[in-house]
Amino acid sequence: MPRTGRLLCAVCALVAVTAGAQVTRTSEYLEHMDTDGDGRVSLADYQAWMRYGFDQMDRNGDGVLTADELPGGKGRPVTLAEHMARIAATFNRQDTNRDGYLDARELAAPPQK
């Protein structure tokens, strides 16, 4: 993943955490991301949580983060579709048992390369 993409994912996660509710444990992430309360996070849950940061950074609401909206004020534009694809790729790397969901253990682990 290009540096801009990694940085954007990290910043979006931070924005989602600080704007929603401050979480400090994996169980709290699971509780906030798990919209249906089944004890696991689907791709849709994960993308919804991570999209919040993108939306907050997209000040003009056009679905594209331009350099002035990106961390550090530089980088190539990033579309919402690109961002969602990166999030899906991260989710898929974290879903080590390939069941289409992240449990607490998978959510706490760093994404596999």
Automatic annotation (TrEMBL):
Keywords: Signal. InterPro entries: EF-hand-dom_pair (IPR011992), EF_Hand_1_Ca_BS (IPR018247), EF_hand_dom (IPR002048). It comes from the Bacteria. It comes from Luteimonas flava. Residues 21-56 form the EF-hand domain. Gene3D superfamilies: EF-hand. It holds the Pfam family EF-hand_5. This is EF-hand domain-containing protein. The keyword Signal applies. Residues 1-21 form the signal peptide. The keyword Cytoplasm does not apply.
